[in-house]
Amino acid sequence: MYQEKIISPPSGYLTFALFLVLLGASVFCFVTESFVWGSCILAFDFFLVLPGLIINNPNESKVLTLFGKYVGTVKTDGFFWVNPLTNKRKVSLRANNLNGQQLKVNDKLGNPIEIAAVVVWKVNETAKAIFSVENYLQYVNIQSEAAVRHLANIFPYDHAEGEETSITLKDGAEKVSELLEKELNERLSRAGIEVLEARISHLAYAPEIASAMLQRQQATAVIAARKLIVEGAVGMVEMALEKLSQKGIVELDEERKAAMVSNLLVVLCGDRHVQPVVNTGTLYN
């Protein structure tokens, strides 16, 4: 596997000045009718001096190869002159955003879900990006999709009934993103790619089970709410009986306590407004 070799070529300004001097010399030769010398100088100027001039912009690099052999990479921005016979390939070092398409996969529990991720990446080692893979842009796309599919398969979308899973795709966003970034760095290191950030951008149940899962979530929420209501109601009934007993307002036998508890629980746990009924008799008539 190729290792990146950074080179610092000479400045291109002196070479450009030489180009102008040789161009002037060739013109002078043509004026003085020295056509052979003028043609030789002009050919040397345009075929050996001018092609070696390169401009490297910030966050940009040039990968140089000479007759199929890797020479080095120019990463410094500026105006340079390199061997005119080398092949120069531009590789951007800027950060790139990959907005992955929505994938339909099965989670750990077998539920079909839709998932997509956003990946921020950049080329870290140009030699690997150019020589280790056929097309590093396509390589990033395919490996990112494979990593997202693998991540979706090893975690459930949500907690299963009666089971407490440590990490889920829905609730463990930070941990899932951390694992996705780690796996992408392992997969893309072969191509000299560094992943700066990776996050899940879309997560939902597939349309065919979305309505059923929504009903399940609603039922779970209703049960949880009822549980809190009942716990609160029992505490209020207990407090009411304790206060009545402490202050001696009324003496209640076990049957009257049971009736009072029943009435209070109906009032506190009911989901509708209670209509009061005035009892003008006794408990036993």
List keywords for this structure.
285 residues; 21% strand; single chain; alpha+beta; Membrane protein; three-stranded antiparallel β-sheet
Main β-sheet: number of strands, strand sense, barrel status? 4 strands, antiparallel
Helix amount:
40-55%
Report the uncertain regions: none
Record field, number of beta strands: 9
Summing up helix and strand content along with how strands pair, one would put the structural category as alpha+beta
- The sequence of SSEs as H and E is HHEEEEEEEEHHHEHH
Q: Radius of gyration, Cα only, in angstroms?
A: 38 Å
Assign an overall shape: rod-shaped
Could you walk me through the main structural features you see in this protein, from its secondary elements to its overall organization?
Keywords: Membrane, Transmembrane, Transmembrane helix. It comes from Pedobacter mendelii. Pfam families: Band_7 (PF01145). InterPro entries: Band_7, Band_7/SPFH_dom_sf. The chain has helices at 12-31, 35-49, 126-131, 136-154, 173-188, 207-247, 254-269; strands spanning 53-56, 60-66, 69-74, 78-81, 87-92, 96-99, 103-106, 112-123, 193-205. With 285 residues, the chain is an alpha+beta fold. Strands 6, 7, 8 and 9 form a 4-stranded antiparallel sheet that branches. A 3-stranded antiparallel sheet has the order 3-2-5. Helix 1 runs antiparallel to helix 2 and helix 6 (207-247) packs antiparallel against helix 7 (254-269). It is rod-shaped, with a radius of gyration of 38 Å. The mean pLDDT is 83.
